[in-house]
Amino acid sequence: MKKGSLTVRVGLEGDEGGFRKFVIPISYLHHPLFQRLLESAQEVYGYCSSGPLKLPCSVDDFLHLRWRIEREPHQANGHHRPSLYSC
To answer: Do you know which Pfam families this protein is assigned to (predicted)?
Structure first.
């Protein structure tokens, strides 16, 4: 894994596609859309977990979320514009 990234495990229990691993930039951790997903992960899995960070989100929804984060323009102050999306 390259510097400045982390591995996440994405999927929902009982989902046909199962779980998939993704390598994402650490900068995602500061994005409001991703922070909501982290809050959901804390509610579902708690704080203690071994291995990759688990995200309770379908793979398709995660891919859409990642696409939205990548396409979103950065504001001049370096912050992302918050928008609504539920994963």
So the answer is: Auxin_inducible
Tell me the angle at which helices 59-71 and 32-45 cross, rounded to the nearest 10 degrees: 150
Tens of pLDDT, residue by residue over 8-30, are 999 987 777 688 999 999 999 99
User: How many whole angstroms separate alpha carbon 31 and alpha carbon 14?
Assistant: 28
What is the model's pTM?
Answer: 0.75
Distance, CA of 41 to CA of 38 (rounded, Å): 5
Q: Is 8 exposed, middle or buried (0-12, 13-18, 19+ CB in 10 A)?
A: buried
Angle at 27 between CA 35 and CA 18, to 5 degrees: 60
Alpha-carbon gap, residue 27 to 29, rounded angstroms: 5
